[in-house]
Write a structure and sequence with these properties.
Catalytic activity: D-galactonate = 2-dehydro-3-deoxy-D-galactonate + H2O
Strand content: 15-25%
CATH topology of the largest domain: TIM Barrel
Number of helices: 12
Cofactor: Mg(2+)
Number of domains: 2
GO molecular function: galactonate dehydratase activity; magnesium ion binding
Distance between the termini: 45 Å
Bound molecules: magnesium ion
Helix content: 25-40%
Radius of gyration: 20 Å
Keywords: Lyase, Magnesium, Metal-binding
GO biological process, one term: D-galactonate catabolic process
CATH superfamily of the largest domain: Enolase-like C-terminal domain
CATH architecture of the largest domain: Alpha-Beta Barrel
Shape: globular
Oligomer: single chain
Length: 382
């Protein structure tokens, strides 16, 4: 079998899909994207496509190493997201060729169902209690929301109190019947992270995510020493070489590699194994589309330390389309009491509505995250 063609489709809300075709008539799908830089990743995909033309898609390990090592320069969000989407599509082709789900090729199921959670509250956390109440009625008991809005490197107790009030309201409304992660989203610097973690501790969040930016990762072990709240990070780390540094330094309890940013299934299975060896849980990042989620689930169902799966149904970013709009086998993604079952179909288990994607590609939005500013006019982390 030979790879014959790579086609990319932009689609609302902010996604990029990749279709890899073969001379055997079997095609695989991937989602190579960095949110807000989809055109840049697309260019990288087609540039890397030169290494794929005419090659046997079954040799995923060799193709991955060629894409990673073959160009001398490596790593980072653009190149690793391009490799990620290509890798997903190659696994999809392999599974479809052999007629089995990818998790079978990874050694088979380690669990019967995977716990998922819902995002609530949006960019500027609001209406948390109302939204959680709505999702509770659908059977979800685990949630995530942003912990703060703009926060200065050293900020007023008023900013801390505003953040705490939202968390307190959730605990007051639901007691211990819900779990929630609080995402600092890299908005908080090390000085305020120390304060917030201490103040949040009585509310027992399941985890705090990106307590500081990943480029300040040396603070993860220091913050972990001051707080019993499990710390999570990883959506802005792109390979096992990035993750090995944070695992060696310690401090994180949960790794959150993104299957569309960190080299795909091939790389994230290795990252999952590295985490397991450090008693660190896995919770793949996935505010993206259905192929990315399907790839996450393949890893979750083959990784003992996978604890929680993010998914984007109803997420505040999904303007213009939602998770399953381009999916034909929607029923396979059904959530039962917050859990999803292993996708039964061959390959990644997602059947893409290509006609709908072609239509979406005609007029996709050019999504960018907002650029926030502090009250003094300086740029703030979003
Ligand atoms: Mg996050």
């Amino acid at each position: 079998m030979k790879i014959t063609k790579l086609t990319t489709y932009h689609a609302a809300p902010r996604w990029l899909f990749l279709k890899i075709e073969t001379d055997a008539g079997i095609a695989g799908w991937g989602e190579p994207v960095i949110e807000g830089r989809s055109r840049t990743v697309e260019a990288a995909v087609h540039e890397l496509g030169g290494y794929l033309a005419g090659k046997d898609p079954a040799r995923i390990n060799d193709l991955w190493q060629t894409l990673y090592r073959g160009g001398f320069y490596r790593g980072g969000p653009i190149l690793m997201s391009a490799i990620a989407g290509i890798d997903q599509a190659l696994w999809d082709i392999k599974g479809k060729t052999l007629g089995v789900p990818v998790y079978q090729l990874l050694g088979g199921l380690v669990r019967d169902r995977m716990k998922t959670y819902r995002w609530v509250g949006g960019d500027r956390p609001a209406e948390l209690v109302e939204q959680i109440r709505g999702y509770r009625a659908l059977g979800f008991d685990t949630f995530k929301f942003n912990g703060t809005e703009e926060m200065r490197l050293v900020d007023s107790p008023r900013a801390v109190d505003a953040a705490l009030a939202k968390v307190a309201a959730v605990r007051e409304a639901f007691g211990d019947s819900v779990d929630f992660g609080v995402d600092f989203h890299g908005r908080v610097g090390a000085p305020m992270a120390r304060v917030l973690l201490r103040e949040l501790e009585p509310f027992k969040p399941l985890f705090v995510e990106e307590p500081v930016l990943p480029e300040q990762a040396e603070y993860y072990p220091r913050l972990a020493e001051t707080s019993a709240i499990p710390l999570a990070a990883g959506e802005r780390m792109y390979s096992r070489f990035d993750f090995k540094r944070v695992l060696a330094a310690g401090g994180l309890s949960i790794l959150q590699p993104d299957l569309s940013h960190a080299g795909g299934i091939t790389e994230c299975m290795k990252i999952a194994a590295m985490a397991e060896a450090h008693d660190v849980a896995l919770a793949p990042h996935c505010p993206l589309g259905p192929v990315a989620l399907a790839a996450c689930l393949q890893v979750d169902f083959a990784s003992h330390n996978a604890m929680l799966q993010e998914q984007s149904i109803g997420i505040h970013y999904n303007q213009g389309a939602d998770l399953l709009d381009y999916v034909l086998n929607k029923d396979d993604f059904a959530c039962d009491n917050g859990h999803i079952r292993a996708l039964p179909g061959p390959g990644l288990g997602v059947e893409i509505d290509e006609a709908r994607l072609q239509h979406a590609h005609l007029n996709p939005p050019d999504w960018r995250n907002p650029v926030w500013r502090h009250a003094d006019g300086s740029v703030a982390e979003w």
